[in-house]
Amino acid sequence: MKGIICRLLIVVCCVLGILGAAQLSCQAASSHEIEAFHYKTFKDGDRKWLRIELGLNNDDLEYEVKENPDKPYQLLILMKNTKRGDVNKNIGLDRKIARYMTLTPSGKKDLQIMIAVDSSLAEHEYKVYTQKADKKAKKPYRLIIEIAADGAKSSVKVDNPDVPEDELLPEVSGHTVVVDAGHGGSDSGAIGPSMLKEKNVTLNIALEVSRILQENGARVVMSRYKDVDVFGPYATDKQELQARVDVGRRDPSVEIFVSIHCNAFTNSEANGTGTYFYPHSSRDAMLAQHIQSEMVRATGLKDRGINSARFYVLRNSRMPATLVETAFISNPNEERMLANVHCQHTMALAICRGINNYFRNIIH
Length: 364
Prior knowledge:
The structure is a single chain. The chain has 364 residues and is α/β, with parallel strands linked by helices. It has two domains: 32-154, Immunoglobulin-like (Sandwich), CATH 2.60.40.3500; 165-363, Aminopeptidase (3-Layer(aba) Sandwich). Helix content is 32%, strand content 29%. The chain contains eight helices and 16 strands. A six-stranded mixed sheet has the order 12-11-13-16-14-15, with helices on both faces. It has a five-stranded mixed sheet with strand order 5-1-2-10-9, with no helix packed on it. A hairpin with a 2-residue loop joins strand 1 and strand 2 (47-56). Helix 3 (198-215) packs across helix 8 (341-363). Residues 9-29 and 152-159 have low confidence and may be disordered.
C-alpha cells in the first residue's frame, strides 16, 4: 500500500512540474504591448535631438534596427512579439527632425516602426535602446529612440528655435483654446467607403492642432486625448454633447471653442470643406471665416463657405465657437486625403493659422 501511495505522489509531482514548466514557458513568451507614447526635443551641446519614448507592459524586449535601402530617409525598428496597443497607427512628430512615425504589424507577432526623418539617415546620428521602469517617476519599461538634427537643419535660426518656420504663429501665445475631436469611443461618427472612421481622423487632427498651438505658447484644453466617449460609454447624444461644452465652461480662461469633424452625405460625389458657427456675436463668424479661409488655401478643396447652424456644441458654448467639417469622408478621394498623415497635418496647421489670424484681428 505504501508503495502505491509513493508512486501516486511521484506521478502528481511530475504532473505539477510539467504544469509549472508550461506556466513558466508561457510567462517567458508573454507578448509586449505599447501602452504609452511620448516625444520631445532637447539640446545636447549645439545639436538638437528628438527623443521618442514607447512605454511597454513587459520588459526584455527583443528588437532589430535597420535602415531602408530603398528609402534612405526611413529608420525601421522591428519589435519582436509586440502589439500596437492603445497608440495611434500614424503619429505626427516634430516635423523638423522627423516628420512622422507609423506602427504596422509584421507577420503574426511582430510590430514594425517606421520613422521618416527630414533627410537621408546618413546625415543623422541616432540611438535606439531600452530603459528600465522608473516607479518613482511613474514611467514604465520603455523603448527609446533618439535622432539628432542634421547639420543643415541645426544651423537654421528662427524666432522660436523649437518651432518650424512654417508653424510659427505668434498671435496664439498666451491664449487658451478648447480643441474638440468629434465623436470617439462608442460613437465612430461617419464611416468612409474604405471603412475609415471619422472619430480616428478627428482625433489625429485635433492632437496635431494641440501640438502646434502649444509649441507656439497657447494653452490647449482637449475634450478627449484618445478614443473615448467624453461623458462615458453609451451616453445619450445630449449627455455626450453637453460634456464637450462643459470642457470649456469649467475653465474661465478659455477664449474659443473649435470642434473638428468630417462631413458625410449619401451622394459620394459631395465634396469640399466648410465651417459652421452660431451667431452669439460677430466673433463667432469671424473665427469661422478665418479658419475656413486657411483650410481652403491649404487643401485646395471646394470652398463650401461658412454657415450658421444650431449645432449643440456651438449653440451652448459661452465663448466664440466654430465647427470645422474638414472634408467629406463619404467621398472616396477626400477619404484618402483624410487618411493621409500629411493631409491631416496640413488641415491641422490650417486650423491653427485661422486661430492665429482670429486673435490677431480681435487684438488689433
